[in-house]
Batch of 4 targets.
Target 1
Amino acid sequence: MPMPTAALLPGRGFLAVAGDGARPFLQGLVSNDVNAVSPTRTLYAGLLTAQGKFLHDFFLAEIEGAVVLEAEGERLADLHRRLMMYRLRARVTLTDRSADWVAAALWDGDRLGLDAKPGATRAFAGGIAFADPRLGALGLRAILPRAGAAAALAGAGYAFSDAEAYDCHRLALGVTDGSRDIPVEKAFPLEFGFDDFHAVAYDKGCFVGQELTARTHNRGTIKRRIYPVTVEGPLPAPGTALHHGESEVGEMRSGRDGHGIAHLRIDAAEMAIRDGASFTAGGARITPHKTVLGGHG
């Protein structure tokens, strides 16, 4: 059995939305069903433009009675600003709690008594632990008080690694990492796994960007999607075009240590996977692999 592994993720930030109007306020804005968030369930969701383009993604958790958005730390101020634009007279407060909490990823072992149901959540060490709602193979996440987080994880039997090791783990599974992989204000989220990651509740009613997102989902018109890839040679920068012969088939997104994610034409990717073919990007050879998105376990 692999040793249960933990990594603190210092690049994450936390925005607590509290008050009587917190859930109705968020429900009309974000892509998932805020009313389903509870002490026993955490969700993954996004904030989109009115045209259905990607702005932010985050986990939605309930902590200390507030709905907490765990998001990209470096972009938390922008997320805060955009939400404040919609607040108007809503009875809510938005508080940056990044100084109080830290995120952790837990994989390769013990589930802390949680089942594999996506988003299953329990109290742990003064915070919460939850099964990653995007993909079961990712393992668990935790949001913990900064003081004592490492000691709590060590006491639960986890060996420590680093955020870079977790990055390789999620890359091998073909899972996006926010704006590192999804171009802000340019990308349609369904091309980057939002359906596979259970980020959209189509039956919840309106949210910002809902009309185009629902139309794309219902028509099944996606022609590109993300795939895990292996990289032989120098790692191409995000946005580098990938080619099959003279034809451009997509672009590279994030990568590390020979693993990466590419946004590819589905027809070209599936052909390459079937035939054992590769693409090129500068001096690198890029080989796409079958995606595991949509599966849990």
Target 2
Amino acid sequence: MTVQSDIYNSILATYYDEVDGAQRDPVDLDFYVDLARKIGGPVLELACGTGRVLLPIARQGIAIHGVDSSPYMLDVLRKKVAQEPKEVRELVSLHEGDIRSFRSNTKYPLLIIPFGSLHHMYTVADQVAALETAAFHLEPEGALAFDVFYPRWTSILPAIGEEVLEHEWTPKSDPGKIMRHYTRRESTDKIHQTGSSTLIYRIYEGGKLIQEETAPFQTSSYSYPHLRALFMLAGLEVVEEYGSFDRMLLDNNSNQMIFMVRKQGGQKMDVSG
């Protein structure tokens, strides 16, 4: 049975932690947790997903509020929060909302957008709107931290039309099955700096395919000047910038671009390691 659904759907939300945990280097998690510990709460995480970063921050005794547009991802996160001790549960507040338009009455000393979530903003208008949401919720001396990756068009173009096996695993909840996650690159728009793919999740039992779910997946890319222009449009300015999560210099050898930004004209806080 093949089902097509939206990205961050039921299957992806259910198995997101297992796929992500096997593929991600935890150094980005350490970066955001250490930052929250240094600056303090409450923290606002935009695009919090299933809480890979949110929960470790709450476990440090820091209040954190999460926003995500996927009800499936938030449902997984709420179940995880429910299993935490009372003192952790009381520090977490979750909201379903679009990071381009979300508004609350709370101002924060720290906002975070981890795991390259800004790559899901596909137009300049959307990108500015997301950054304006962050700026709106910052305290006068507050900071926004986020990461994106450098464009890697050379690795995308040769694979267009091909299915690439990204990960294979046995679900913890059902060891009799095998899950396989594939990505099929569909197109690349170099003018608008976006790429379109199809995510494919296949479930096997007894060597036979029993279920397949696909979802369209689109990402945008950012250049350094593009980001600096977005900051100006959103009323933000750079406090610190790094090329890695261990705070190495941002240069041509970097794979990530990691920024700490504040409202233009705000008082600079000490965010050094």
Target 3
Amino acid sequence: MDGFAESMIARGPTLAADRETVTGSLHVLSLPSIDAAHQFVAQEPNNRAGVYAEHSVWRFENLLGRTMWEFSSAADEPRFLIIAGTLRSQTVETSGPPVPPESRSAELRDRLILYGALTTLDDDSELVGVALALQAPEREAVDAQLAAQRVGLDVFRDIEIHDWEFGGRR
């Protein structure tokens, strides 16, 4: 993966509730083409070893404009990955994120590690979802943010929340 190091925006394993058992992995890269994305998938060591039953590849618009390594946090709190998809209505504006990051509360913006719109590989104007990673005191705090619609994902039917941690060499 060293050949892709300069392209990495975020990476790391998703975890079960015990925060020990690996359930999957996230890789967000800034790559020049669809072919380069497919090359990354083909070379990713766990994928080559058959660890994953499936994988998904989307275009990601990095709305924070930074990498996970530029996230500054003084707190030693768990991190979570949220992937939202399947719009509730076709009338929802699909040319950008449902809620721009600057429209979120300052507290939530300070907790965001990763935030971006997901679009299809073939058509980067078709919004298919939003991905964000954030730091929170506990899973219940994330659930409360979602329930209160403070995260701005209520336009999506499907929302996955994964325990997550930074990946890479340790």
Target 4
Amino acid sequence: MIERVGILAIQGDVEAHRHMLEGLGAEVCDVLSERDLNSVDALVIPGGESTTIAKGIARLGLQEALQKRIAEGMPVLGTCAGAILLAREVENHPVPVLGAMDVTAVRNAYGTQVDSFAAAVDDDAAPGLEDLRCVFIRAPRLTKPGSGVEVLARVDGLPVLMRERNVMAATFHPELTSDSRVHALFLDLA
């Protein structure tokens, strides 16, 4: 059971994720050290700029600790840039990744900041995610999913929410809406 959720607080909308998770009854704390990481049952890696977050992970010496905890089964949710960092590889200006999900991330696949948009998921979304509205800001695409990767939602036929074992990745920003279903699904991973 998830009792305490950490948010990797290097960059991104940490407070919006905190608000969403606390609204679902989770105890939430910032993660900026290995000690912080070892005190949580699950982790959110928020959006932001994947290069900046990757450099922050390296600066804080968290790369190996993150990989170890995720490999041991700690639930993790990556949104936008966080999804990029969870991938096995990255196209379009690669960054160091955690390799936790068997997908390839394509950075800025939908365009620049001015190309940001919101859209509802396709009709074939997983039960409970019907009509989910997704906010895309310089969003990545997740491609070449391995056989263990489950697509939970698509927009215009393209995967936008995926799960593999204890790892969830959203190419959008679920924290920027009032809909808590993605965060609730993440909490259910445990």
